Amino acid sequence: MIAAERLAEHHFNQRAWSRCVEVCMQALDADPAAEDAMIWMLRAYSAAGMRAEREQAFRSYLRVAGGSALEVGAPDDDPVVRVYRQLTAAGA
Q: Was domain 2-89 assigned CATH 3.30.2030?
């Protein structure tokens, strides 16, 4: 999993958004709750302007992670939720 996360980060930094997403999808197939892979995927979708795909991926994560993390006032203790909120607040 660590290798996949590093590869996703590399592709993201190279602005290879689709390759980043591919690596993340493979990692998430192995572990649907892999937080770092989901974070890189959300960032890549945002950078590529693929908001609908980002939303779908995030909703999928919520189903796997237990769901109610987006309640108003919920603490940002989940790193995926924290990054998602940052991305959406920034208009990405």
A: no
